[in-house]
Amino acid sequence: MQIIPAIDLKDGKCVRLRQGKFSEITVYYDNPEEAALRWQNEGAEVLHVVDLDGAKEGKINNLPSIKKIREAFRGEIEVGGGIRRIEDIELLFSAGIDRVILGTIAVQSPEFVKEVCKKFPERIIVGIDAKDGLVAVKGWVEVTEIRAIELALKMQEHGIWGIIYTDISRDGMLIGPNIDATKALVEAVKVPVIASGGVSSLEDIKRLAEIPKLWGVITGKAIYTGAITLKKAIDAVKKE
After folding, report:
1. In 3D, which of 124, 119, 132 has the Cα closest to residue 103?
2. What is the pLDDT of residue 174?
3. Would you give the DSSP letter of residue 52?
4. Are β-strands 216-219 and 2-10 bridged in parallel, bridged antiparallel, or unpaired?
5. Domain ranges of the chain
6. Is the pLDDT of residue 172 over 70?
7. Mean pLDDT of the chain
């Protein structure tokens, strides 16, 4: 299982939000590439980058910072945040990004997902944010009537590379991931699943590592506050 550090970008800086709220923000690095180098030195092979300004505006907003991260980091990079146009996907791929994450657009326009999966096979990830098993969209503002597993199965048919599953009630709260919901999703689909939200300790990571076939887990706040040491987490999972 991959341990994937998150780098959230706002105004070109590496930040963390609490439960996705722009009013509750902490800046960790003025230069996000420094975060990328730090996580690389601690053993990360994959980075999860989110353009928070892009998520708010519906278009890429932090491309210069994304390019700097790409120059600094040797491993794979996945990028998300308000990506709703083919032009933006092409921009990211031309900047050397490995995989692109689609969120709200997957619910609003499944045909778009189908189209980009055909154009960029094995490079599209769908981010599914859920609360009580139901899909949330538009930066977690709206909770739909669509079940997370139902959306995951539909997206799998379109040829996505994989799914990032976030329990939004736990994100940034350091209260532990939703193991049961994550396990149910992994068992329901054939594509890779990456867990996200609520990881607060090494124990949480070990519990997630017990889910057969879980591809990875994203950790954000916990590694920035020091609640988890990334290198120790990676070593712990390798020993499992």
Report:
1. 124
2. 58
3. H
4. parallel
5. 2-239
6. no
7. 92
Q: Which of 8, 53, 88, 98 is catalytic?
A: 8
User: Is 129 considered catalytic here?
Assistant: yes
| C-alpha to C-alpha distance for 171 and 167, rounded to whole angstroms | 7
DSSP E strands: which ranges in 99-220? 99-102, 124-131, 134-137, 142-147, 162-167, 193-196, 216-219
Q: 3-class DSSP state for residue 120?
A: coil
Q: What fold does the segment set 2-239 form as a domain?
A: TIM Barrel (3.20.20)
User: Which is the catalytic residue, given 51, 88, 129, 171?
Assistant: 129
CA 203 to chain centre: 20
CA angle 168/235/195 to nearest 5° reads 20
Q: Flag whether pLDDT at 8 surpasses 60.
A: yes
State pLDDT tens for residues 104-162.
Answer: 899 999 999 999 999 999 999 999 999 888 998 866 567 889 999 999 999 999 999 99
